[in-house]
Every structure is written in C-alpha cells, then in structure tokens.
C-alpha cells in the first residue's frame, strides 16, 4: 500500500513539480481511509480539518435545503481533491460528504497542508485554480435552476458528467457513473418525474441512450445546443 501511495502522489497533477523530499513527507504523513459504500465522511457541523484525495471509488458531496430536499453539489472520482475549504475556513462543514461507492481516500491535515502551501507557492496556485474552476461550474449549474428548462439542465449535466466520467466507445461517450433518476433530479433541482420524462424525450431524439443506470451521450453537439439555448 505504501508503494501505491507514493505512486499516487508522484503521479497526481496537483503535486507535479514538487521536490522529492517534499513528496516523501507528504507520503509519510498522509493517512489512508478505506470506506464502504454509503459511509459518511463528514456532516454539517463537523470540523474542517483536512484535505482529501480520492485514490479509488466515488465520493458525493451534497447539501440539504431548508425544505428538506437534497441538492447534490459534486461527485469526486480517482485523483480528485476535495475538502479544500480546509485552506480557508475555520468554521465547520455545511455540507454532507459520503462514499458513493467503496472508496480509498488519502487525507492531509490542515496543519500539514498549510505548511506545504507556505513552502510551495505553486501548489497553492494549483489548488486555487481547482477551487475557482469548481465554483464556476457549480454557479453555472445553480444559475440554470432559475433560467433554464429541465431538459436544458439535464443536457448540461450529461455533458458535465461525460467530461468527468466519460469513456468513449463506438456509439459515443459512456458516463461511467450509475445514477438513478432521483439522483439526477437532485443534481439539477428537479423532481424525479420531470427527469424521467426529460430522459424519454432525449432518448426519443437520439441524443442519449440509457443502460444499467448509465447514460451514453450520442450527440454532444445537440446536447450542447440544448444546454446553452
């Protein structure tokens, strides 16, 4: 496992260019967590005290609204970093993070992360870029809740998931993440019934296929036109 951990950090883009002695320290201090599916990583009120990296599996981050509805914010897969609020926040978590599948995670404590960032400005810049990109994507998706139809929001979601989890085959792009209609609804702020009807329409128009809870994107251009139109 230690060899696997060293390989992971040395080949993760976030740590690219760091000196060997710095990488050795990260490998020595990073903790390993093995989580079964549905295991909670943090809940609202838990302390923000560490950064997480996904070695394997998928993690879901969500928020429960005042009305009791779940809004899914992000899915994180292999090589992704999350919990980056540990850099800035002194307050508790306001979201829920859980293992969507069986996961192996590496964690870096807030104190160790701060030391790394002070000693390696390039690492701080890369983390800032990740945070900014993630925020822009989330704001774009949330903005669509007000101004776009469910069909447009769903098309945008499938394009986003294809970018993060897509595997190309002869038909198009397989979104290699199994989602129920209810889970899709929580990602775009719609009801399960609305998502089910929208998927039927997208399938009828040959924009997507569905198989075993996976979506296959058949026509990226048409989906993009729908998402932005």
Describe the structure in your own words.
This protein is α+β, with helices and mostly antiparallel strands. It folds into two domains: 143 residues, Jelly Rolls, CATH 2.60.120; 81 residues, Winged helix-like DNA-binding domain superfamily/Winged helix DNA-binding domain (Arc Repressor Mutant, subunit A). Helices cover 45% and strands 24% of the residues. The protein contains eight helices and twelve strands. Strands 1-8-3-6 form a four-stranded antiparallel β-sheet. Strand 11 and strand 12 form a beta hairpin. Helix 3 crosses helix 4, helix 5 crosses helix 8 and helix 6 crosses helix 7. The radius of gyration is 19 Å and the shape is globular. The relative contact order is 0.12. The model has no long low-confidence stretch (mean pLDDT 90).
Put the structure in a nutshell:
The protein has 229 residues and is α+β, with helices and mostly antiparallel strands. 45% of the residues lie in helices and 24% in strands.
Relative strand content: 15-25%
For the record, the count of structural domains works out to: 2
CATH class of the largest domain, named: Mainly Beta
Give the overall shape, derived from the CA principal axes: globular
Alpha plus pi helix count: 8
* Topology pattern, helix = H, strand = E: HHEEEEEEEEHHHEEHHEEH
Determine Rg (CA atoms, Å).
Answer: 19 Å
